[in-house]
Amino acid sequence: SLGSVTDNSGTTPTITYAIGGTPLAGAHAFPIGVSTVTMDASDDVGNAATQQSFTVTVTDGEAPVITAPADQTAPADIGGITATLDVTNLGSVTDNSGPTPSITYRAGSTILTGPHVFPLGVTTVTMDATDIAGNAATQVSFTVTVTDNEAPTVTLTTNSTQVAAGDRVVVNIAFSEPVTGFHGSELNLSNATLTSLSGTGTAWVATLSATGGGDVTASVPAGAATDAAGNGNEMSNTLSVRDTTITETQTQISQFMQSRVDLLLKNQPELAHLLLGSETGRLNSQVSRGTGTFNFANRSDAPVWMMLNGSWTNESDRDLTYLFGSIGSHIKVNPNLLVGGMLQFDHMDQTDGAAEVQGTGWLAGPYFVARLPEQDLYFDGRLLYGQSSNKITPFGTYTDKFDTNRLLASLQVSGVLDYGEVDLIPSLKASYAREAQSAYTDTPGNRIPKQTVELGQIEAGLAFVAPMPLYTGEGEMTLTGGVKAIGSFVNGSGHAASVSPDYEGGRARIDLGMMHRMVNGGQFQIQSYYDGIGASGYDSYGISFRLEYQF
């Protein structure tokens, strides 16, 4: 109905509308863009009008429509606090015409073109699109939520390699990320107690005290602490520290027994003079470097004889105090043979810092002294059996009791060779002592195994007694001395087999001194010695004094 036509005569012609030769008979759907419509007309006599045309322009005014995807949720990457995702293929867009517009994705001001690193928490992603006609779609959005679903890990370490009862163990506790809610009471502990806990975030320090009941173990159970996302930790490794309570206790006992059997042999009473019956009762006092002794004895020809010795030693960190006593009686079978019995008792205290071992024991058994007729050659021997009751405080915290059985045997031959004013006194002695500790259970609950210590000694000596040259005073002054070869072997069973004393092996000892016998019968003696010749790692030297009175 657009446009018009006129003619000079007749009826008004009809206009024919056409698009590209296609007549238009009514409403027509024009495409977007420009379409040319032609107009033609002819009158009744066939005269055709000059063709006219006009254009119809259709514009696109409709915006695209974007459809957003559902909100997204993803776990953080393993070991991290972010998640890498590509969301540029999510959602869709439609348009009424033309090519499908592209979608522009944004996280904040950042345009996303592919995989993107999203942080923990919620991030909003916007979607925009514009068609070729410049129509912008309504912006839509969706969220990307990154969650922390990973449990913190925890690792326990320590510098301690071994512990004993009462020792401190410092444990470093490292979480893989900061945690809260860790109080230390959650620790799984074996043979230890928690004394303190400090730290925050990822680094914590627990201080433990070993009970001595076995190897110390520690671990953090699952769920003992939580991270910022509320995830409980995974179970930690199990930390283990070797406990040496049993070993150290056995070592202290074996050292105690080794020292005691040595002192027991050293303090045995001489028996050869019992056959002579010539010694008076005596009171002796002796002091030497690192060691002190005293002894008391009555007359050897009395029906009952007795002696009491004491010694004390300070060696490195170990202090030893030893008290020994013996009482005996015998009968004279004939002028050349005595047979008797003796009872011995001793007490020893060993301290080494906070550790202490002490014990009291006894031995009893027969002895004999014999002499070759018409000869100054003497034989003596003894065989004793006994027991002891002992206490040990190995670490200064608790005290336990243990018992031992003891055996001692010795045989000696000695003589006197008269070379005018000089007497030589050769001797040969073999001694053996054994002490066996019974097993027991200590306060922490450890079974302390039994062990045995054996000490054997062979002593070959040559002593001399000679007048002091140029002495013109009152009484008698004599020069004394000698040399002695000593062979010691130590054996043991159980843990004692691995503990060796310094005195084991072969060595030699030299003595030099003088003795003044006073006119009133008293006697004063000074003696120096060096022991350890030929022994590696063992030497002993000192000076001693002895004062003796008749009573």
Automatic annotation (TrEMBL):
List residues of the HYR domain.
59-148
Nucleotidyltransferase is among the record's keywords: no
Residues in Autotransporter domain copies: 297-551
Task: Name the UniProt key words of this record, in alphabetical order.
Answer: Repeat
**What SMART domains does the annotation carry?**
Autotransporter (SM00869)
Q: InterPro entries given for it? A: Autotransporte_beta, Autotransporte_beta_dom_sf, Big_12, HYR_dom
Q: What is this protein called?
A: HYR domain-containing protein
